[in-house]
Structure prediction request, 338 residues.
Amino acid sequence: LEKSVCDESLQIRERSLMVLMILSEQVYLNNIRELSAIVARISANWLYYESEFIAGFEPVCLKLQQIVVEMLSTQQWYEVEQLIVTMNKISNKTLLKNNLIQGVVASAHDKLAEQEVLDILANAYLSESSQRKDVVENIMINMGRQGTQFLVQKLAHSNDKEERLALVDLIPRIGTVSIPVLVSCLDDQQPWFVTRNIIMIVSRLGDDALYNEVKPHLTHEDIRVQQQVLNCIEVLGGKEMKTRLLEALQLINDELKAHLVDLLVQFEGPEIEAALLDLFEQRQAFSSHVHDFLVAKLCDRLVAYPSSRTIQALLALIEDRKDRNGAGDNLVRNATDA
Prediction:
């Protein structure tokens, strides 16, 4: 049967598929665990090979969906892994099939993500030994958009730090299928730690086009989310990094600007000097608890830009601080050294 469902003859494949249908029905109705593994293996090979929407295709897929759910529920993970991977490849079009095949398989694949099954998989992934964890991880990665939605929701509601870190590590491995779910979460009002974790996941996906989804959170009310956006800019890197850092300089809280200044001076160009001087000239508006530190940082970094504008700005600082605090003022010394 395993050979005949992949035969070159369409007629033989159709007849073989009817046998597979009958076998699948009996396996499901009688819960024959040993045969379910054989059905899963045969079906994975058939789906990979089949290029035509032959008679019986849809009913077999519907029955396979039921069998796979049962196998997942009873932790037959190794036996069903390859079938799920194949279904996912067809669903997300990395394994190309015609529209009819893709649509039917995608529908069956989507229905695998039952709440009970996902709970079993997630709990196993978060607690199993490393040997079993590998296969569970691969299954979770191949559970499609519904599986991703479940993992993101679990991440949002988890109170366990180690669990959250494990999920942040897992979700990016799902790949582009996860993007719509992640973008939707960024658009919603979420607790700060959920938004931060989603941005961390987006960073790990490495898709530069996703930065525009992250950028609005540079003005997030929680500084830890702003910091994660800066981390995202660093991780993505690329030719847009300088432009993004310059934009961020105008938006983020003062507490983060010293680090951002250090990032900016790695780049060349007159716009860097102009941005640093613009920031320096806004020093009166700096938050009091970071004022002196940020001004000192700017003095130190402006040394690399000995233009007349820089010199005039430093002299103005020296004169102002001397008048108010005397020649021994720390910022006077910083500016003088610069």
Q: What stands out?
A: The chain has 19 helices and no strands. The mean pLDDT is 92. The two ends are 82 Å apart (CA to CA).
